[in-house]
Amino acid sequence: MLLFALIGLCLVLLGVVGLQFTYMFYVDRMYNERRKHMHDLELKSEKLSHKLHEAHQLIAVQNEKLKAAGLNEEEAWADVIDER
To answer: Whole-angstrom Cα distance, residue 11 to residue 17?
Structure first.
């Protein structure tokens, strides 16, 4: 009778180990996916930062052209908005 109890205990422990391995593989896969997602987000952030920097430069150039033409920035932008 003790032998059957020990065999049952071994099978239960084997099941627990199987669940732990399954969970470990799941956590590892999720970690890899999150790491890949973070890398993609970092690349996208870098591209957006570059685009923002270019937009700031373009606005600065346009403002310099407006100053050279003798126009006020707010008035010129109001005219642009009215035209659209």
So the answer is: 10
Name every residue whose Cβ is closer than 8 Å to that of residue 76 and which is 6 or more positions away in sequence.
Answer: 66
Predicted confidence (pLDDT) per residue in 7-22, tens digit? 999 999 999 999 999 9
Mean pLDDT of 68-82: 65
Q: Dump the DSSP string for 34-49.
A: HHHHHHHHHHHHHHHH
From CA 35, how far away is CA 25, in angstroms rounded?
A: 15
* Contact indicator for 76, 66 with CB cutoff of 8 Å: yes
Q: Which two tokens stand for residue 83?
A: 């035209």
